[in-house]
Amino acid sequence: MKVAIITDTHWCARKSSKVFQDYFELFYKNVFFPTLEQYGITTVIHMGDAFDSRKSIDLSGLEWTKRVVLEPLSKYDVTLITGNHDCALKNSNRINSPDLLLKEYKNIKTYSEPTEINIGGLDILLLPWINQENEEKTFKLIEKTTSKCAMGHLELAGFRVNKQIVMEHGLESKLFAKFSKVFSGHYHTRSTDGKVFYLGNPYEMFWSDVNDERGFTIFDTETLEHIHINNPNRLFYNIYYNNDNYQTFDAREYENKIVKVIVRKKDNPSKFDKFIDKLYSSNISELKIVENFDISEVKSFELDESEDTLTILNKYIDDSEINLDRNKVKNILKEIYQESCEMV
User: Fold this and answer.
1) How many domains does the chain have?
2) Which single residue of 16, 48, 129, 280 has CA 20 to 30 Å from 79?
3) Rounded to whole angstroms, how far apart are CA atoms 218 and 226?
4) Domain span at residue 280?
5) Of the residues 252, 268, 292, the one at which a domain ends
6) Are 224 and 256 found together in one domain?
7) End position of a domain, from candidates 202, 230, 258
8) Nearest Cα to 28, choosing from 78, 77, 81, 64?
9) Where are the alpha helices (DSSP H) in the chain?
10) pLDDT reported for residue 328
11) What is the mean pLDDT of each run of 10 residues along the chain (344 residues)?
């Protein structure tokens, strides 16, 4: 039996911004539901962070969620576990948005506590967000279960949070060594150690997601094989300006997109302004311009523009003559960088 696995949908994200709603809707209308029909799938598993905000719900966002996602989803059997963004309390899953907001949808079964279920003849251990209140129960069930597969919203060390950052704290993946396969939500980028698979979320949400594959997963409960279905739609774009000819520049693909222009060379400010004007005329949603990265104080530092931002920052720190603990500085910068990535 083939089932669809989706995770970290973050409905009502960005205060239900229309730009993000329109972008998310492209995925559901043109990718997700058509693919379910194509594969004859009748069962969907959601692995947490269905909603974005822990504390409140935007009414326009809730209306969008019902119309675009939940109503079309009503003809499918849905299993949904709670993620950390779904829970109002830091150390408990008791108060959560799926339980409160999805009661009217009889096709959706929500799970806020670790539970063993069977789908398509396969025993699966569901592992909602692990916290102080449920961790003892969770670890005991992991130890005694005979399920071959686990699906959860896990925070494991050693996996990528995004393309730039690897999580350094969290549970050890060896805790799940008994399972044939482990699928998890929580981190938005795909990564695996061969047994544990972080499946990633369906769409771009932050600048750190640029050019990172997004989508959902189809899983065969008989063979335990899975394939990724990619979302071809993008929202964030980097444009590298290098004295480009504005007259031949085609800006049409950037309509309703969030764009960052990174200036590598600009000999003629007037031509650059016309380049930017052409972008604006294509009806972009938002534009950022990065013109200068001054690292002149460290003469030996060499910038490789093919490297990611954190690599560049860490290299800069290593080459700097600072009388501080470099690892502490790197960790502070990493935290700041991660927070900045979650800003539009």
Assistant:
1) 3
2) 16
3) 5
4) 235-292
5) 292
6) no
7) 230
8) 64
9) 13-16, 18-27, 33-39, 59-65, 71-73, 97-101, 135-144, 269-281, 309-319, 326-341
10) 77
11) 98 95 98 98 98 94 98 98 96 96 97 98 98 97 98 96 88 96 97 97 95 97 98 97 94 96 94 96 95 54 55 72 74 72 50
